[in-house]
Automatic annotation (TrEMBL):
PROSITE patterns: ASP_PROTEASE. Keywords: Hydrolase, Protease. It holds the Pfam family gag-asp_proteas. This is Aspartyl protease family protein. It comes from Sphingopyxis flava. One of its GO terms (molecular function) is aspartic-type endopeptidase activity. Transmembrane segments: none annotated. InterPro entries: Aspartic_peptidase_AS (IPR001969), Clan_AA_Asp_peptidase_C (IPR011969), Peptidase_aspartic_dom_sf (IPR021109), Retropepsin-like_bacterial (IPR034122). The lineage of its organism: Bacteria, Pseudomonadati, Pseudomonadota, Alphaproteobacteria, Sphingomonadales. One of its GO terms (biological process) is proteolysis. The keyword Protease applies. The keyword Hydrolase applies.
Length: 183
């Protein structure tokens, strides 16, 4: 029981630090990050950064903002459109890329079985196969990013994740109380 509590507290602290980092950045401060190819801490969420970052994704010009309310489970969820089709996603600043469940990927028209397994995702339940792809567009209430790197994770994540390959292309992501604002 104590181990679960400590694990939960560490997870909450990590998410809080990640969200604070996003909130404090402005669009002009962003530069693609790169990691040393020999970095022993690299994993599926950082591997593409070794090859120059996520520079291929570009936001659509939008002066709008989207406000998301904190859910009962303390997470923020967005009703996104991926390739023009609706997908409910959890906003996860700790995920380097958009991560789709197999069911969501198939619902937006991805033939998952035709995608090659391109690595493994390290999850709480262990390593699971993942398949990389580029989404034509990800839109959250009018804030659209095109050419978004993503992965289909062959695990029961329960919900797809709206990660940094989308979030980092926005002008700002802030949290005030129980409201997250995307700009």
């Amino acid at each position: 029981m104590l181990g679960r509590f400590i694990g939960l507290a560490a997870g909450i602290a990590a998410v809080s630090v990640g969200m604070a980092g996003i909130a404090s950045r402005s669009a002009s401060d962003r530069a693609p990050s790169t990691l040393d190819a020999g970095d022993e801490n690299s994993n599926w969420t950082t591997e593409s950064r070794k090859h120059g970052g996520w520079t291929e994704a570009s936001p659509r010009e939008s002066a709008g903002e989207v406000r998301l309310s904190r859910a009962g489970d303390s997470h923020f969820y967005a009703d996104a459109e991926i390739n023009g089709r609706p997908v409910r996603m959890m906003v996860d600043s700790g995920a380097s890329i958009v991560a789709l469940t197999r069911a969501d990927a198939e619902a937006v028209g991805v033939d998952v079985d035709r995608l090659p397994v391109s690595g493994t995702a390290r999850t709480a339940g262990g390593d699971v196969p993942m398949r990389r792809l580029t989404l034509t567009s990800v839109d959250v209430d009018g804030i659209e990013v095109r050419g978004v790197p993503a992965a289909v994770v062959d695990a029961d994540m329960g919900v797809s994740l709206l990660g940094q390959s989308y979030l980092a292309k926005l002008g700002a992501v802030t949290i005030e109380g129980d409201t997250m604002t995307l700009r």
